[in-house]
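For concreteness, we quote verbatim a single protein encoded this way:
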Amino acid sequence: MEQGFELFVGETASVGSQVGGVIVRIPFHEGDEVAAGRVLFQLDARPFANALAQARGTLAKDRAQATLARLNAGRMRALFDKQLAAQADWDQARANADAAVATVQADSGAELEARLSLEYAAIKGPIAGRTGRLLVHEGEYVKPQSADPLVTINQTRPVRLSFAVPVDQVPLLQRYRSQNPQITVLPDSGRAPLQGKLVFVDNAIDPTTGTLLLKGEFPNQDGRLVPGQFVDVRLVLSEEANLLVVPSPAVTSGQQGTFVYVLNADSTVTPRSVTVLRSADEMTVLAGGLKDGENVVTDGQLRLSPGARVFVQKPARAAS
């Protein structure tokens, strides 16, 4: 189990334009949730529609000329086979037919480019998410393939959490990775914690930080998590039931081994030897030595001795 203060990052898309034109319509408002493929900006499509009509007309004309050139080549071949036409005439007719076919292929490419430009006049969102601040307005001219975005979309459902674990915890992560580790965003402002899952483990340790990058994914249906937000998280590798757990400050090491001070009913204390399995965060897991419900001293052990009477300032946390 790991706990950290980490950064949420979501998928982000900077929406730009592949063609140049004047914006005639922006059918959304800043901060709207938009679906993938929704039209965000509409450019004036008339120049693109005109270019497409011209490209289609040129293609139709050159297809007709290519058909005529093939027919002429066929007739010339028949005359050449009967030795009624010269070799040069047959070669010229065949070259004319090949050139006409190549022209049709070039026209097809130009028609496709014009059709794509018309489609690009409707600028669509590549991902679903929440839009940010508008950087252009209706009536402005958009440059083709400009590096300046028109608007930025941040994916919020789901949202991904990027965090790292120290290198000494990597063997433990590898041990439990196949058990679908869960990630919990710790509660804030009295709200319930959020549950997510581990979706990415990097393939190398970062040599500059000595940590391994991980990513978790959260549905975030209520929109509580915002890309760029820092939160406290816990990575739960596995769960074990019915273990004896005490606060870590209660466990003391001495010449006789590891022990805790148990609070008796008459407000005196008795040292009790315990066996520590492991420590996790602020809690220590014991293999035995205590009973469920017994109270232990968590502060001031250095001033205690067997049978000493103590005054409990606050209710002691019960062992569980």
Observations:
- The first strand starts at residue 2 and ends at 9.
- The mean pLDDT is 88.
